Amino acid sequence: MLDIAQSFLAAFPTVFQPVNLLSLVVGLVVGMLVAVLPGLTLVMGIVLALPFTYGMGIVPSVILLTAMYISGTYGGAFTAILFRIPGEPLDVPLLWDGYAMAHKGEPAKALGWTLFAAFNGGILSTLAAVAMAQPFAKFALKFDTPEYFSIILFGLTSVVALSGASLVNGFISLFLGLLIACVGVDSIYGAERFTFGVPMLMDGIEYLTVMVGAYGVGEVLVRLEQGFQTDPVQAAGRVATRFPTVREAWAIRNTLARSSILGIILGIIPGAGATIASFVSYGTEAQYCKRRKLLGTGIAEGIVAPQTASTATVAGHMVPLITLGIPGSGATAVILGAFLLHGVQPGPQVFMKDPGLVYAIFASLFLGVIGMCLMGYFTIKALIKVLYLPEALTSAFVIMFCFIGAFSARNNVTDLWMIVVFGIVGYLFERFKFPIAPMVLGCILGKEAESAFMTSMISYQNDWTIFFTRPISGVVMVFVIIALVYPLLRHHRQVRAQRALRASQGA
Amino acid sequence: MLTRLRKALPYFIVLAIAGVLFVMANRIDFSAPGGRIGPDFWPKVILGLATVTCVYQIVKTLFWDSDQVAGVLESILEETPAETAVEAAPEPRYPRLILAGIALTIAYVVLIEYVGFFLSTFVYLAGFAWIGRYRRAGVVIATALIGSLAFMYMFMKVVYVSLPLGQGPFAQVTFFLMRVMNIK
């Protein structure tokens, strides 16, 4: 553990190098702006920033994107508390107690609790992630291709099984992503697959165009269909932040502990992102908090729980991403994209070969949490001014960033067509309630999943039972089966309960 | 039944696409050493799973119930106390706006090589804001002009992306701007 602490501390000077520090500050500011603007989602913002990292080194690129990610989990709290406008879906639970506290005449205190929660959740989860990452990576070194395949399969199935309003739609989205990854010349036999005679498709479909199209253009089109209608912004009055006293903070230590642990765990599990953590943490407080009957009336626990958990997921997400190369959310999928664009495949090997890179990312997360809190404290008044920008104008610029971002990867106009196609696909997905994240993850991890599967089949003479008979792989496959079966069982139990309730009401 | 058919329509479409792609996967040309699975195996497995999923949902929607099986955490969220839930008002929809937005976006991609980056971007930014129901003409034009010039400068001068120059007289406009902005 001492060597981990030493490596972590030794990485701080790397973050203080001018280009890395600049990336950190820019990432924090942009992430906060993106979170404040209601029409722009956090993932969309990170996707739009990705093309700007082409010319940067791997360290500043990842620092920029992770800084955006972490400050994005905090920025939306301002608008949720002050204006009742959740900048991100993860800020919705803050409407219940945060806005209520502000409405009772204590907006500064509500903002202070948010800052306290984001700081503690961020710092605790970063330290936990630092402690966990190396043992995780060492364990992952024992993996062979069957283990990799089962881990990727678990990552993909859990993304679908844990979240989303429809399991079926999630799987269809995932299958589409896996099929997109099949397009082009396959790496083992050199056979053309689904190229439709289009020369450009021989190289496959860039996952960047899928991400930018579906998240960027798709989301803008959804907002356009709604007429870019945002609730009018009321006057915020005097905007300030007042910290809780030590006594007040000590009184909610259990809430803080519960939501930090929940955030870290839900961060590590693929599929359960900041939004889910925020809601689940609030729900947990509704069951276990001493003052649970007062939840929704503007109490500190209702602010601290969702904010702590959502910020804590960020460092949690970085553990499987860095040690296994498995992104658990849309935002980490984009960060994985940044790694791959720079020719680095995250996984245990990276951890062993270049620990400096890994600890620099964690050090930047640590400093990012401090930076975002300082920024939130001092610049909140200026930040919320972006709410007054007309959404129609900002959206036009978002699409333009999408186009230029995709174009600059290969300087090819065909990529613009891809953006339009996946933009329309993204819009249709949103319209018909198909989740986008499984498609994007399938698209990114599809090639790796296929490669691990095919290599296993070749190495073990087409014996598919190998995925179940090897100890680690077998255990993971059991988790895959649980991830697939449990939601179905749960659904049937709920349906039966509803029918029984209806029957008893009828009687 | 009509409502159920409408609900099942997206799955029929996916099923049809999966069928077509499965036929295409059968035609993948390769030569694998004896006994090894070929490059058609993986896509066929995915298409097979997609087919099974769609058939399950179609049968369920048409003959059983149209309720979707939610993800585990989603269903936990649904069980959170009712008093904490925020009632969301139904969002208005403007189908014409979306059609106009998609048409403008396609037109942009078609025209960018002929008209050049600057002019097409100027028209696109202004047009999109207008379609998005922002009606302050002065602000729209000024923002589109400043935005397209800023994009051109940032990407051609700073990031070195070779954006489309356009053809004929449109290219002359681009060259003129490049001279003014000292872009080489």
Describe, in short, the structure shown.
The complex is a heterodimer of chains A (507) and B (184). Chain A is mainly alpha-helical and 507 residues long.
Write up this protein.
- The complex is a heterodimer of chains A (507) and B (184).
- In chain A, β1 and β2 (192-193) form a beta hairpin.
- In chain A, strands 1-2 form a two-stranded antiparallel sheet.
- Chain A has one domain.
- Chain A has helices at 2-10, 12-15, 18-36, 42-49, 58-83, 92-103, 107-140, 145-162, 167-182, 207-225, 246-251, 253-268, 274-288, 300-324, 330-341, 348-353, 355-383, 391-410, 414-431, 437-459, 466-469, 471-506; strands spanning 184-185, 192-193.
- With 507 residues, chain A is an all-alpha fold.
- Chain A contains 22 helices and two strands.
- Chain A starts with a helix and ends with a helix.
- Chain A is globular, with a radius of gyration of 23 Å.
- The longest helix of chain A has 36 residues, at 471-506.
- Chain A is 74% helix and 1% strand.
- In chain A, α5 (58-83) crosses α6 (92-103) and α5 runs antiparallel to α7 (107-140).
- With 184 residues, chain B is mainly alpha-helical.
- Chain B folds into two domains: 2-84; 95-180, no CATH class.
- Chain B has seven helices and no strands.
- Chain B is flat, with a radius of gyration of 26 Å.
- Classes of the chains: A mainly alpha (507), B mainly alpha (184).
- Chains A and B meet through α6, α8, α9, β2 and α10 of A and α1, α2, α3, α4 and α5 of B.
